[in-house]
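Worked problem 6 (solution included).
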Amino acid sequence: MNINDLPNEILSIIFSYLNVKNRYYNRFVCKKWNTLLAALLGDDGWIIIHKDINVPKVSNRYNIALYDADININQLLPYANRVKGLKIACAINWESLVNFLKNIKELEHLDLTSCSASSFPNIPLHHLKILHIGSLCSFDLGKVLSKASSLKHLTFHQSHYNSSVDNFIRNSKSLEGVHFERIVEENRDLINLFENGINHLKVFKQSGTLTNAFLPYSNEVLEKLTISGTGLTGDLSLMLLFKLASQLKFLKLATPGLRIDWNILKKVTQLKELHISNNSGELDKSLSSLTLLKCLDVASFSTITSSTLKILRTNCSLLSHLNISGTSNINNEDVNELVKCLPKLETLFLDHCFSLTFQCLIDVHIFCRNLRALSLQKLKKDETALEDVAKLKKLEYLNIAFCKLSNSWFQSTCYKLLTVIKLSHTNITDEGVLHLVKNSYRIREINLMATEITGDCLRYLITVHSLRVLDITSCENILEEVLNEVKDNNRLNHLFSSIPTPMALDCPCIALHQKSNVPFHKIFTIT
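Solution. The predicted structure is:
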């Protein structure tokens, strides 16, 4: 019998006993193995390298991320010619990296946002497509860009701006997107650039402390626009002046208090993703024309009502991702009628909707068969209705924190594809946790903060090879002697933990008091 004839669930259980190195190595055996092992490793395409894990010898080219400042860079030199992406996420000695960079023949992605670099080696960059430069880098960005003839996406801090950077952005034929970080209004030359000099870009993102939203008014090809800034209080009625409405597909306004003329969005008929949080206004006016909308994130939007949801179910049947958390002017019937009209729904966030109970999700398993992420934090208890949630076959992400469910409910559910579950401040006990984990062969993250679990449960969890993130903060039933035992357990090098242990400082795969709070719009990618 061929091993590939085994069910995916059995194969994944087998793969869970492999260490991290062998999981990466075996990804390249075949497409099926790559898919299953990617689920165990994180699915982001980046190989995390530290002093205890070697890069597997493979023929494929790959992305590597360095999270350990103590790594011996010389050990990586034999693999440099296979690297296509490099992310520096630690305070590593820059000079030790220069020789490694010189040996990378076709570098396509370079991320230096967390790296301090005073100089940049003289290396060919004609294959480079993505470049992220942080504020700690002090080399001349203009000289680097002059070699990057194929660059498509650039992120840089305003301190790197000079005339050569300006000329590159204005005249580059390959550049498609730019993210300007920490922009201030006093930098008039830079503001003039992104008001008048980026008419050829498809992606534009600005962030900083501004009092006005500066926009590429004459850009006719822009597809993605992001504006963020804590001090931004301008009036987006100015958007009436630009011509980009016909092509814009992605709009994110992370600016609390920003004044918006909602009539503007009626012109953006091609919009597929809309992210606006902590705002108010007559959103209903805009939604009626957004018939192609696939992702809507309007968390903490104070004016969402029953009429808003009625417009969604009538005009936005293509919605696959919806976040209406923090909404208090809707009821169970409104949400129930909405999910019945959204057969493509994959992500639903209803956190802190205090007017709702689990009754709003009756029959959700019938009408939303593709639902993969569900967040119900602080919804009112109604276990009978939650039985329909337990019937969702494709669920991967579940957040029921602060929902006071009985432990018997946890023991009666089975989510085979579950990768992330948040159970903080619930009544779950050891038996409920063990049942969930043993029946979820892909589990990567568990939040058990302030629950009643004991040391026996913790001892079991650290043996689960697929587990990467564990939060046991404020679990008073776990004795100190058990925590000390866990600190010395070598299996923790495959685990992100909030356990206060000195080992977290030595091993990059452990983050001290680090929680994985994934933004709504990054859980799944819209295509």
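Discussion: The chain has a mean pLDDT of 76.
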